Amino acid sequence: MKVLALKLDLKADDYRPFLPLLCRERANRIGDLRQPADRLRSVCGELLVRKTIADLLHIENQEIHFSTNQYGKPYLSFAPDFHFNISHSGCWVVGAFANVPVGIDVEQVQRTLDLAVAAMVLSPEEFVYYQQLEHEAAVDYFFRIWTLKESFVKAVGKGLSIEPSSLTLRTTGDGLLECLTDGRRSGGRFREYKPEPNYRIAVCALGETVLPPAPEYVTITYFEQLLV
Fold first, then answer.
1. What are the angstrom distances between the C-alpha of 125 and each of 7, 122, 132, 165, 224?
2. What is the CATH number of the domain that holds 212?
3. Average pLDDT over residues 8-18
4. What EC designation does it have (predicted)?
C-alpha cells in the first residue's frame, strides 16, 4: 500500500493552467465548483492520482481513463486489481493506493462541534461515550471516529448509502480496530496519521485475504513532482 500527502502552498486561482492535464469531463466538473479553493484542491487531488497511477502502472497520463461504479467511486477498468482513493481538507490533499479496495480521509480538526452533527456520525454506543468526555477530548474523539468511518465507507465504495451512525468502531484485544456494521463485523485494516496537530488522516483497506500493511508514515510529495 502507498499513502501520499500533499500540502498546498498555492494560491486558490493557481489551478487554471493545469486543467488541460485532466480529462475534459473532470475539468468541467471542477470548473463548476463555487469556491476557487475547492477547485485547487480537486485539481491537485486529480493530479496526485494521475501521477501515481502513471508511475505505478508505467503508462502515460493520456492513457488514464476512469470509470465509476453505481455510487460514483472511480476505478480503472483496464486494471481491476489497482485500487485508489483521495481526500482533501484545508491545506492537505491525500491519496491511498493498494491492490485491495482502499479508502482514505483527511479532516481539519475544528474546535467547535455541534451535538447534532456528532449524533449523525457516531453510533448510539459511541455517542454515549462522547458525551462523557471533556470538550477537548470529545473533539479529538469525534474527529478520530469520523476519519476512520469515512475511510471505511470510501473503501466500501457505496457513498452516502451507508449511514456513519450505523457503524461502530471498537478496539480489539490485540489493539487493532474493527468496524461493526449494524452489529456485524466487517473485515478491514485501519491506519491513522497526524501530518499536523490540527489534522487527522485515516486509511482503511478491505479484503477477505491477507491485507497489505499500511506504511508507518505517509509519503510527503510536492506539487512540482506531480508535473514531471
1. 35, 8, 12, 10, 45
2. 3.90.470.20
3. 81
4. 2.7.8.-
